[in-house]
Amino acid sequence: MSSNSFSRRKFLGASLLTSAGLSLIPGLSFASAPTPLFQSAHERVRLGFIGVGRQALGLLNNFMRIPGVEAVAAADVYAIKRERFALRVQKNMTEAGKSYVAPKLYEDYRELLANPEVDAVVIASPDHWHAIMAIDACRAKKDIYLEKPLTFTIKEGQELVKAVRENGIVLAVGSMQRAAVNFQTAAMHVQRGKLGKISQVLVHVGDNPHPKPYDLAEEAIPAGLNWEKWLGPIPSLHFNDLLNPGITLNPEKNEAAWGAWRWYRETGGGLMTDWGAH
Fold it and tell me: What is the pLDDT of residue 233?
């Protein structure tokens, strides 16, 4: 494989550690401190972010801790989120005393994928977009860090696996409860027989794991939000601010809550695809 492709593979391994809180991933070995692994991803990796809401901002802060990683592009259907992302990149780089070029901003994620300056992508869009965006990224030959759940349906998962293999892509899934050290430790105790023979496992994914019908009142679509592009493959629905909460930049006011689309049958899978995906 090319040296650039190899550096992206090492980057994705390191990115899993940072996003999961510096915790242990099976198949990756390092000494007590994770720094050597981060330094192994020393070659320049240019990241494009697709979906730049609150989750993406948290990921950005962690990815910027990896030497050589740059945020060069962002795509979102909400103009103010794109602007906020660019300001956050500026803030991070300025505080780190580093020079930077402002990221290129797009409303349509496909334009980001067509940018040859983007080596790999971070996808933190609503769940119903995961498979489509990730498959398109595979075809664009971009390695991928994809937020959980991997896909929204089983069929989408099968198609994404096929796209990853056909295009030789490395895809990492951000799943805190698969990566965090406390969960890894519990799994290790089971695998080593420290809890004896396990005959039954009970899994709790919330008191009401099933989504409810979309019963929100219709509200005016805010300026700068392309609601039709947000819906994408979802049949047409009226807008409600709970699905895409408003934000301001001066003064900065971020989403009071986010990801509420999970709780409605038409737009999400409830706690089964939220907690259950872990």
Answer: 94
Relative to beta strand 171-174, strand 143-147 is parallel
Model's pTM, two decimal places?
Answer: 0.84
Q: Give CA 43 to chain center in angstroms.
A: 22
What tens digit of pLDDT does each residue of 37-92 get?
334 444 789 999 999 999 999 999 999 988 889 999 999 999 999 999 999 999 99
- φ, ψ (nearest 5 deg) of residue 45: -125, 120
* Tens digit of each residue's pLDDT (9 = 90 or more) over 234-243: 999 999 999 9
The superfamily in CATH containing domain 3-179 is NAD(P)-binding Rossmann-like Domain (3.40.50.720)
Alpha-carbon span 172 to 131, nearest angstrom: 13
Cα 61–chain centre separation: 13
Which secondary-structure segment (H or E) carries 46?
Answer: strand 45-50
Question: Burial of 200 by CB count in 10 Å (0-12 exposed, 13-18 middle, 19+ buried)?
Answer: exposed
Q: What is the mean pLDDT of the chain?
A: 86
Q: Report domain extents, the chain.
A: 3-179
Sign of the dihedral defined by the CA atoms of residues 27, 51, 256, 244, in that order:
negative
Q: What is the 3-state secondary structure (H, E, C) of 96-126?
A: CCCCCCCCEEECCHHHHHCCCCCCEEEECCC
The phi and psi torsions of 116 (rounded to 5 degrees) equal: -70, -10
From 30, 27, 26, select the one nearest 39 (Cα to Cα): 30
